[in-house]
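hiii so um. not sure if this is the right channel but i have a protein structure encoded as tokens and i wanna go backwards to a sequence. like what aa goes where. can anyone help
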């Protein structure tokens, strides 16, 4: 039975790896109900979870889950102690905390971009998680951890992508990057990153230097004789009393 469970888990993990780009370490969001069930069934989450998923894991929770356990009193004190040993992921409810199920759903967004697993015994939360594509669901049954099969929403999403009806976020990102490189991205396109403005920098100091003259090339020099202009003799005809045939020789330099 254990081998059969691990084979089914390996098949499910491969589905999320190839279709939704899940990678190790797997990030698992736990709530109080899962830890309470593990405590009752004497399941060591930190030891058994990596063995069952056959890979490195990161067990984490949120502040809203811890605050909800504090408000429930001593009955869930053990679950609270277990959760406090795990990493805490920042949620958007800094000032006013919300119920644990609502907080975990908000961490998934529309398409689970951070590739979270959800570990919970809450039936309402499990039903809501199955409506989001690409979210693996973990729960405890018969003293064992079980990875649920891919939901119908995840399977239909993969079929739509394979048939070309939908585009994955990775493909959308690569398309936007190519458009930016070609300069054809629209200003109001959603999901595309804006081009970074180039910083204004000082000019290259080497380009500001004066050009050096090439050695060995003599510069032409003008001599004094060339500067002097040749004097020309001009004859001007003097009209008037001296007569039209009388000329004077004038030298100009």
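sure thing!! here u go:
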């Amino acid at each position: 039975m254990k081998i059969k469970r691990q084979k089914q888990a390996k098949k499910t993990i491969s589905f999320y790896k190839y279709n939704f780009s899940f990678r190790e370490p797997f990030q698992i969001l736990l709530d109080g109900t899962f830890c309470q069930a593990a405590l009752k069934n004497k399941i060591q989450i930190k030891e058994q979870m990596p063995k069952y998923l056959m890979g490195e894991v990161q067990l984490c929770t949120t502040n809203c889950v811890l605050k909800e356990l504090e408000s429930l009193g001593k009955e869930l004190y053990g679950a609270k102690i277990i959760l406090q040993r795990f990493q805490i992921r920042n949620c958007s409810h800094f000032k006013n905390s919300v119920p644990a199920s609502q907080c975990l759903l908000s961490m998934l967004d529309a398409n689970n971009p951070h590739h979270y697993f959800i570990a919970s015994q809450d039936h309402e939360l499990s039903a809501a998680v199955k409506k989001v594509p690409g979210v693996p669901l973990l729960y405890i049954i018969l003293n064992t951890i079980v990875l649920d099969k891919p939901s119908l929403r995840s399977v239909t999403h993969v079929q739509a992508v394979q048939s070309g009806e939908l585009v994955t976020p990775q493909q959308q990102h690569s398309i936007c990057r190519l458009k930016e490189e070609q300069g054809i991205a629209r200003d109001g396109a959603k999901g595309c990153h804006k081009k970074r403005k180039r910083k204004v920098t000082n000019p290259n100091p080497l380009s500001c230097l004066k050009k050096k003259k090439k050695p060995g090339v003599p510069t032409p020099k003008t001599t004094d004789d060339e500067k002097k202009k040749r004097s020309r003799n001009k004859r001007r005809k003097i009209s008037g009393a001296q007569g039209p045939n009388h000329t004077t020789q004038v030298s100009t330099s």
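oh and Strands lie at 26-30, 57-62, 87-89, 116-119, 137-141, 144-147, 232-237, 247-252.
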